[in-house]
Amino acid sequence: MSSLTTTARILIVEDEILIATEIEERLSRLGYQVLGSRSTAQDAYAAVVELLPDLVLMDIRLKGDEDGIEAADRIYGGHGIPVVFLTAHSDNATIVRAKSTRPFGYVLKPFQERELIAAIETAMQRHTAERELQESRARFEATLSSIGDGVIATDSDGRVEFMNSVAEELSGWAFEDAVERRVDDVLPLFDETTREPLEHPIRSALTRRQVVHLDDSALLFDRSGNWVPIEDSASPILSVEGRPFGAVMAFRDGRERRRALEQIVQAEKRLSQVQRLDAVGRLAGGVAHDFNNMLTVIVGCCEQLKLRIAPDSDEHKLILDALNASLRAAALTDKLLALGQRRISEPVRVDLNDLVRDLEP
Questions:
Q1: Would you tell me how many other CB atoms lie within 10 Å of the CB of residue 319?
Q2: Whether the Cβ atoms of residue 252 and residue 236 lie closer than 8 Å to each other
Q3: Across residues 35-48, what is the average pLDDT?
Q4: Cβ neighbours of residue 7 under 8 Å, at least 6 residues apart?
Q5: Which residues are 131's β-sheet partners?
Q6: What is the rounded distance in angstroms from the CA atom of residue 337 to the CA atom of residue 346?
Q7: Residue 107 has what pLDDT?
Q8: Rg for the chain (alpha carbons), in Å?
Q9: CA dihedral (205, 206, 208, 210) positive or negative
Q10: HEC-encoded secondary structure of the chain
Q11: How far apart are the first and last CA of the chain?
Q12: pLDDT band, residue 173 (cuts 50/70/90)
């Protein structure tokens, strides 16, 4: 006998006192922990709330207004405690009613001891398996709900079974409204250039039985009528035999990545412009330095000639023009040097008429 059976805490619900006593003695002899017996549905439910047994052996026919089927529905639905029916009635109508409460087994009266043990062990093992499955599903959903990407899961027909909050936000669909709908309706995808519908990655993953990625041109048309660029991948959920019984898709809003890429492109353009200006500045600085040296000679010669020629002569006027042009050239070289040295220039007001008059000769 397994340790699971011998440690089970069992409540008996039977309105025939002799039968209840017999069952209690048998279970105690077999090593079960019997929590006593009750004869009505109301008493049974009160005992479940107080004692929280691992399993309830429930007669279908009970005293009072409520029978065992109704009590089992309240017990399993309210507390998740498995119920095994004890009954001498196996008519079809009773069985159909009993099945609606998701019983964990039936034992027909009069029963053999091995039948009772088998029913209890099977019920406890099934209950443990279902509880582990529920816990695993809860962990799975909690994990998917906590990640930053949108996640949507479907069955093998591509109908929605799960959506996390990010998927709800991006699609505009609440999970309660989307459940069991076609994923194509909840998450319609289109080509950004042509606005033609795309083959849905969920459908592709189910058909190809492999991970499928969308390219960068995918747009989601959300429930509010907005176009949202998304990045995603979908993967089939395969059985042990390799058959797909569902698929899951993870996707994210592509607008943030596009903004980041645009910022990178603009930054690269600004860097390239700065590098070009730097190169021009260094070149201009070098040229200006050498040119300034030559202008110094020209200005010096003009100054010497101006002293040797009569002020009222035509030659004196030409020398002044050459001297003024040299000084303007020197000012220009100073600006080139400022560019090369990245000095900050101060803007000044100028009279264009005066500039043109200076250049008239």
A1: 20
A2: no
A3: 88
A4: 33
A5: none
A6: 15
A7: 77
A8: 45
A9: positive
A10: CCHHHHCCEEEEECCCHHHHHHHHHHHHHCCCEEEEEECEHHHHHHHHHHHCCCEEEEECCCECCCCHHHHHHHHHHHHCCCEEEEECCCCHHHHHHHHCCCCCCEEECCCCHHHHHHHHHHHHHHHHHHHHHHHHHHHHHHHHHHCCCEEEEEECCCEEEEECHHHHHHHCCCHHHHCCCEHHHHCCEEECCCCCECCCHHHHHHHHCCCEECCCCEEEECCCCCEEEEEEEEEEEECCCCCEEEEEEEEEECHHHHHHHHHHHHHHHHHHHHHHHHHHHHHHHHHHHHHHHHHHHHHHHHHHHHHHCCCCCHHHHHHHHHHHHHHHHHHHHHHHHHHHCCCCCCCCCCCHHHHHHHHCC
A11: 121
A12: very high
Model confidence band, residue 86 (pLDDT cutoffs 50, 70, 90)? confident
For the ranges 54-58, 230-234, 262-266, the maximum mean pLDDT occurs at: 54-58
* Predicted confidence band of residue 174 (pLDDT cuts 50, 70, 90): very high
Q: What is the pLDDT of residue 41?
A: 86
Are 229 and 219 spatial neighbours (Cβ–Cβ below 8 Å)?
Answer: yes
> Mean per-residue pLDDT for 52-79?
84
Instruction: Say how far apart CA 179 and CA 81 lie, in whole Å.
Output: 28
Q: Give residue-wise pLDDT tens across range 231-254.
A: 888 889 888 888 888 999 988 887
Identity of the amino acid at 213: H
Specify whether the CB–CB gap between 42 and 49 falls below 8 A: no
151-177 burial string, b = 16+ CB within 10 Å, else e? bbbbbeebbbbbbbebbbebbbbebee
Name the residue among 87, 100, 10 with its Cα closest to residue 56.
10
Confidence at residue 2, expressed as pLDDT on a 0 to 100 scale: 45
Would you place residue 148 in the very low, low, confident or very high pLDDT band (cuts 50, 70, 90)? low
| Whole-number Å distance between alpha carbons of 79 and 75 | 6
- At residue 171, does pLDDT exceed 70? yes
Q: What whole-number distance in Å separates Cα of residue 67 and Cα of residue 3? A: 32
pLDDT above 90: residue 284: no
Structure-token match 């048309």, residue found: 221
| Residue 27 region by backbone torsions, left for phi larger than 0, else alpha for psi between -120 and 50, else beta | alpha
CA 207 to chain centre: 24
Q: Which residue has the tokens 């059985």?
A: 239
